[in-house]
């Protein structure tokens, strides 16, 4: 393989990994607070829908900044949508898995209904302002490394990596992160130390919604290019698997998301690669989902998440 082909493979892997990284990080924040969030798929759907609507409506006004503003809009929409999960699990003490499943079932028909009301059809038009490829000034001129990492690459992916590093710092090096982890491990002990367990859990779920909505927005504006009921198509569940594979650690989740991004990219770039090009397309296209199931089966029982994860907390009187 020549260096251009390897560079293209890395670039496309980063494109697919970016939304998974952001959404998996959202899952880390929620589950570190003790709230299991299987509703990442629904949150991504809402984020993708909101970003595409914003993009179609304001592309003429904001130009090249539209996709980035769309990511912010998608994050806010995901945050608002995650309030359902937060209220259900924290205030009404609903089962976390059932609440997340309801979110996954609610988001697609709700957004498609709104699309039909707004556009009179089951999907939006293709957006004009999308995340394209980006050349880092100076760095793209570096020999070998520039061609591999910094030329015609995905800027949202580097943004997601920066968010992952920041998330690791917040969770492990700040007072907020210590309190967040404490309510996910032993909320009773945290409560006796004066930590507001409900507030911290709300914070974890809302951050999860914001990051998951951003992930959906990045996917819609860099890969799908429009919104339909099949736009997200399991990306939230892959992100959930990346979070578990990464052992609820932001950097581990990021690495797992890159791995799943590579698996998704194989269905496109596999025809240009030795040996892999001999594998039928149907197997390459199903590879990310098969890997997701395998990761959940193999690692779910062995990986140990927060001890109070999925356990509703009732403040003692």
Automatic annotation (TrEMBL):
Principal localisation: membrane
Top-level lineage group: Bacteria
Topology of this chain in the membrane: Multi-pass membrane protein
Keyword terms: Cell membrane, Membrane, Transmembrane, Transmembrane helix
Bilayer-crossing regions: 33-56, 68-90, 96-115, 155-172, 202-220, 227-245, 251-270, 282-301
Subcellular location per the Swiss-Prot or TrEMBL entry: Cell membrane
Pfam family, one: BPD_transp_2
PANTHER family: GUANOSINE ABC TRANSPORTER PERMEASE PROTEIN NUPQ, SUGAR ABC TRANSPORTER INTEGRAL MEMBRANE PROTEIN-RELATED
The name this protein goes by in its record: ABC transporter permease
């Amino acid at each position: 393989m020549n260096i251009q082909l390897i560079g293209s493979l890395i670039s496309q892997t980063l494109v697919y990994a970016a939304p998974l990284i952001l959404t998996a990080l959202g899952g880390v924040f929620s589950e570190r607070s003790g709230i299991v969030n299987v509703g990442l798929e629904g949150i991504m759907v809402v984020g993708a829908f909101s970003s595409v609507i914003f993009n179609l409506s304001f592309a003429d006004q904001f130009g090249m900044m539209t996709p980035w503003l769309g990511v912010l809009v998608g994050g806010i929409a995901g945050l608002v949508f995650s309030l359902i999960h937060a209220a259900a699990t924290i205030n009404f003490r609903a089962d976390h898995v059932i609440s997340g499943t309801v979110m996954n079932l609610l988001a697609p028909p709700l957004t498609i209904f709104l699309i039909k009301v707004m556009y009179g059809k089951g999907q939006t038009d293709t957006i004009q302002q999308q995340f394209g490829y980006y050349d880092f000034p100076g760095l793209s001129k570096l020999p070998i490394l520039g061609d591999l990492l910094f030329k015609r690459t995905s800027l949202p992916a580097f943004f997601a990596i920066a968010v992952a590093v920041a998330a690791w710092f917040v969770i492990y090096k700040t007072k907020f992160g210590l309190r967040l982890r404490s309510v996910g491990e032993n909320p009773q002990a945290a409560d006796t130390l004066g930590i507001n367990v409900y507030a911290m859990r709300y914070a974890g779920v809302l951050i999860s919604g914001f990051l998951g909505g951003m992930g959906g927005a990045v996917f819609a504006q860099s890969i799908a290019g429009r919104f339909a009921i099949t736009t997200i198509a399991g990306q939230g569940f892959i992100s959930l698997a990346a979070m578990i594979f990464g052992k609820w650690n932001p950097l581990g989740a990021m690495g797992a998301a890159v791995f799943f991004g590579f698996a998704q990219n194989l269905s496109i770039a596999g025809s240009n690669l030795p040996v892999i090009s001999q594998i039928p397309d149907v197997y390459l296209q199903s590879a990310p989902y098969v890997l997701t199931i395998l990761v959940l089966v193999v690692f779910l029982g062995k990986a140990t998440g927060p001890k109070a994860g999925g356990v509703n907390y009732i403040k003692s009187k």
